[in-house]
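[job 4471] stage=fold_predict status=RUNNING
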Amino acid sequence: MRPKTEAEPVIKKAPYKQAELAAICHWVKQITGVVTGTCFGVIAFTGIEAFISFLSIAMFATFITYTKVLGADLEALGTEGQMELVKAGFVQAVGCFLAAWIIAYSVVYP
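[job 4471] inference complete, writing structure tokens
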């Protein structure tokens, strides 16, 4: 099966293009980073376990967003398209997570 071009929709239910889908996944990761970082800071979940947990949660949230919520066609996206969605906004999400985590932990446990 040939990969979809930029102009063709990759969503079964909605007319989203791949660039729009990447933007949605980007913002889902940012929100996930802030919420997870705040929760982890408040409950004092620290160390590499917390960071790895965040990475797992962010990847799971992205996958659920583009498969279940938006109904993306995984075959139409192809492996390259799926990796693009996983990478979209990932570094920024890590930054949001770390900032929220540090601030929440510092406020709750001075």
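[job 4471] summary: The CA atoms of residues 74 and 82 lie 7 Å apart.
[job 4471] exit 0
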